[in-house]
Write a structure and sequence with these properties.
This protein is α+β, with helices and mostly antiparallel strands and 254 residues long. It is built from eight helices and eight strands. The longest helix is centred in the C-terminal third of the chain and has 43 residues, at 167-209. 14% of the residues are buried.
């Protein structure tokens, strides 16, 4: 029995070592392998063999990660205090750098995203924050991508989620919007009066060129008034009679 156990012991040790050394990586995973503490190579995906006690492996996920940036207190260029939060989409493109160059790449990216968000938004006015979100998203994404490239990280997108204002500022913006609508209404009304006056001048010139047109217009107006149910009393006055009286009045005046 002892002889049998002594014969099986090496076999059991070999099986355990093989089981310990075999690693299976999914398609989106990579293994950063260190040999005696020094970087050796990046392996995967699929079946990976690790030499026990000699090599160590750090598993790295290459899928896109979503980082929720907590609300940040930002003072805009026009001295307005707002709270802004955002979401950052990034992924590891170089597992070697993500393991060697930075201790915790996700925490480091989060902290850098917070400082970048405050720095970029602080250079813009409140109106720009509210109306030019796409431009600000691109600017923050560009800065993050440039700074995190040394960590083997690719920032693919940044989106500003909410810009929270205090009640006083909300009321001020509402008053500003109301004043802007009133201004536009006055301008539209003035432009309408200008266009109407221009059309009346053109109509007067046309009617003055053809006296019969003035008579027809006079009759059309009488017809419109008569068709309405109202208490208005109309006394027709021939336009040619007015012209005759005007012609008779001229010699007397002379």
């Amino acid at each position: 029995m002892p002889a049998l156990f002594s014969g099986l012991f090496p076999l059991i040790v070999v099986v355990l070592l093989l089981a310990y050394s075999i690693r299976v990586l999914r398609e989106y995973e990579r293994a950063v392998v260190f040999m005696l503490g020094r970087f050796w190579k990046v392996k995967g995906p699929g079946l990976v063999l690790i030499v026990p006690f000699v090599q160590q492996m750090v598993r790295m996920d290459l899928r896109t990660r979503v980082l929720d940036v907590p609300p940040q207190d930002v003072i805009s260029k026009d001295n307005v205090s707002v709270k802004v939060n955002a979401v950052v989409y990034f992924r590891v493109i170089d597992p070697e750098k993500a393991v060697i160059q930075v201790e915790l790449f996700e925490a480091a990216t989060s902290q850098f995203a917070q400082t970048t968000l405050r720095s970029v938004l602080g250079q813009h006015d409140l109106d720009q924050m509210l109306s030019e979100r796409e431009k600000l998203n691109v600017e923050v994404q560009r800065i993050l991508d440039e700074r995190t490239d040394a960590w083997g990280i690719k920032v693919s997108n940044v989106e500003l989620k909410h810009i929270d204002l205090n009640e006083t500022m909300i009321r001020a913006i509402a008053k500003q919007a109301e004043a802007e609508r009133i201004r536009r209404a006055k301008i539209i009304n003035a432009e309408g009066e200008q266009q109407a006056a221009q059309k009346l001048v053109e109509a007067g010139q046309i009617l003055a060129a053809v006296p019969q047109a003035m008579q027809l217009r006079y009759l059309a107006t009488l017809h419109d008034i008569a068709s309405e149910r109202s208490s208005t009393i109309v006394f027709p006055f021939p336009t040619d009679l007015a012209e005759t009286l005007t012609a008779l009045a001229k010699p007397r005046a002379g």
